[in-house]
Amino acid sequence: MLAPMIPTLDHLRDEFEALERSLADPELLADAGRYREATQRYGDLKPIVERYDRYRTVLDAITAARELENDDEYGAMAREELADLEQQRDALEEALQRDLVPKDPFDGKNVIVEIRAAAGGDEASLFARNLLDMYRRFTEQEGLHLEVIDSAPTEVGGLSKVSCEVTGHGAYGRLKYESGVHRVQRVPETETQGRIHTSTATVAVLPEAEDLDVHVDPNDYRVDVFRASGPGGQSVNTTDSAVRITYKPGSDEEIIVTCQDGKSQIKNKEKALNVLRARLLERERARAQAEAREARLVQIGTGDRSEKIRTYNVPQSRVTDHRIGFTTRNLAQVLAGDLGEIVDALSDADLAARMGHATHGMEASEPPLAQAGGAA
According to a count of CB atoms within 10 Å of the terminal CB, is the N or C end of the chain lower? Predict the structure, then answer.
């Protein structure tokens, strides 16, 4: 029943109407940051409020139909209409219950995606490049923008590691389930006897943190500049534009971030600081999650990067996501960026799990499937 949630929905409707009025306020229009936050919140609330208004209209129509249910002249028509209205009511109640599941406050943020070749040598580096290409195409389809900010190419044309920034509203919400160990099973081009090899790559998806989220004291890190280079030490830059930031060097909390794909030293430093803030934010989130994780474990898994989350079986053209048992035989399309079906299935499973933990209102809650932490 939706009745216990009515006060929350009324509150959201009041907030929506107040936001609608404020969007024409010159003072708000003059503050780009506040205006952006207000329009995003307005956009998030609009479908919920519209659904709630339809729900109230349907309830009124049900009341009117029931009054005519036993009428000699209009009873048959009223009963037929009532059956349809009750179906609409049930569907709207289910949708509104989903709307009120606590949201992840990071879903709308930009992200840092870090991919590293793991077990499998050259094959693992080639697989890491495959994953980068897959995410590049997927983000294009989603209306997001992916920019490589640091990479380490290998002699065979693969990548030992690569860091990217993905920008656009909802980037984290669409990519957060990718954190984990990805495994590929295929016959390498260099394999003469046709044997299938298994290689792995790790992926970390970190919500991008602004300075307001995580303040980094300049005294806590060292900045080194150097000349960017390609595989085998081949120079790809004639100036010292590459940047390496070492956070708390020599301590247990040391983090090293490099950025060399941009041509501007200033831009590379800015991107490296973005990655550092994202890693620090994720470190704090991981600490907080560890305290509550035991109470949140569900059958679909935790999403920790230590878990094998997905297998790409090339000989059988099969992709399996092990957290939810989802399988598709469209491997070529998936590697070409058609991740939507898998992401939607993960999102639905996550929502179903969180509905069991839902509380009234729209407070933040970390999804069981998206608990990445630290660097890949």
Answer: N
